[in-house]
Amino acid sequence: MSNVELLAQARVPQCSISYMLTHYPHSLQMKCDKFKSSVDKAIKMGFDCSRMQFIRATYVLCEMSEQAWENRIKVYRRFGLSDTEILLAFRSHPFFMKLSEEKIRRGMEFYVKEMSWSPANVSRSPIILFYNMERRIIPRCRVIKMLMEKGLVKKYSLANFLSFTDQRFMKTFVHKYNKDLPDIMDVYRAAQVL
What pTM was estimated for this model as a whole? Predict the structure, then answer.
C-alpha cells in the first residue's frame, strides 16, 4: 500500500496505478526504498508522472539491477550511442533497456555495420531493436537495400517499413517492383530462410 500511496503522492493518475497493479504487480510488492528509488530515478530522467511511459519506466527500473543496467549502457556505448541518445531512446521506449545484451548486439551490428545506418538513427526509433531478426529485419532490409541500389527507392523511414504489416510491406515494396525486379521475391524469401 505504501508504494501505491507513493505513486498517488507523485500525482500518478489512478488509471496508471491500476495499470501497474494489473500488469506489473511484482514492482509494487518491492521494498519501499527500492520502489521509491526507481520512482525518483524515472522523475529525474524526465518522465512525466501523468503519462503511461512513467509506469513502464518505473517498472523497468524496479526490475533491473544496477549491474544489468550498466551492462546494457556499455553495449549501447560500444556501438557509438552517447548517454544522451541512450536516455532519449529509453524515454521513447522504456523496454529498450530490458532487451538482452545479445539482442542489442545483434540488432546494432546489423543496422550499423550491414545497413550503414548511424547509431543515432537506431536510437531515435528504438522499437526496431525489438523485431525478429530472421523473420522481419533481415528480409525487409535486403529488399530495401536492393531497391535503393537500383535507384527505385531513395528515401525511407527506418521505423516505417519495419513496422508495416507483412501484407503492407509486400504490397509497397515487393509486389510494386515485381515487374522491374523479377527476383525481388526470391531475395525476400531467401533472406527469411537464413
Answer: 0.85
